[in-house]
From TrEMBL:
CDD domains: LPLAT_AGPAT-like. This is Phospholipid/glycerol acyltransferase domain-containing protein. GO terms for molecular function: 1-acylglycerol-3-phosphate O-acyltransferase activity. GO terms for biological process: phosphatidic acid biosynthetic process.
Amino acid sequence: MALLLVSGLIVSLTVFRLCGDRRRRLLKQSWAAAFLDALGIEVEADLTHCVPGVLLVANHISWVDILVINAAFPAAFVSKEEVRHWPVIGWLAEKNDTVFLRRGSRGHARLVNAEIAALLAAGKCVAVFPEGTTTDGRSLLHFHAALLQPALAAGRPVLPAAISYWELNGERSLAPRYDGDISLGECTAAILKRPRIIARLVTTPLRGLRGEDRKQVAAEAREAIALAAALPLVSNPPDISAGLPGEQRSGDHPTGNPSQAPADWS
């Protein structure tokens, strides 16, 4: 894994500056797949409903979710502004089309919406985790509909995608969970203790194609993901922040009690 991190830095410093979008997507995809293989995670992806230029919305369990998405369908991610200043991870995120959102600033939000719309118009996939926090993978929280607005305003579809992790015996795996007080090291150690984990990414039919408002699309996407991952629907408190991939419950450092994965650092 250390060698893969170093190679990611080298590639971002060199090859990424020289190659086009298609080559960059392939590099991101192969790097994510290699990292998952080093963790002992095998990806099973159903990409039936994938098309270029979609806003992918997924449930959020672990920092590994980002690797699973990139290994199957490379994407840019939306993250809070603080992630940009994280050592190594922030730099890699910035070099990999991450969209940074400064919370509490309406003016900046408009700029971010325009940036997301431009990525979608260019045929790129942008991914968000609209629950606003990670779970242990056994339930699905409320979706923050505002994160879907850039795609709907730009006339681009929303692609609900369900992520789940499974043991070799067919039971749901809790090893990748990255919620509560679980640290990055504890999460990684739990994954490495398993002989093999199956990560399933299942896409569902596109939403937002008939002029629906964001609340309706968010509700439909949540129900589709719950059905695809066999998850019950529960409610999270209304004051939980708006589903940013880098959100944390305490502190802004990637090693300190995170409740969400870092931004797209692959």
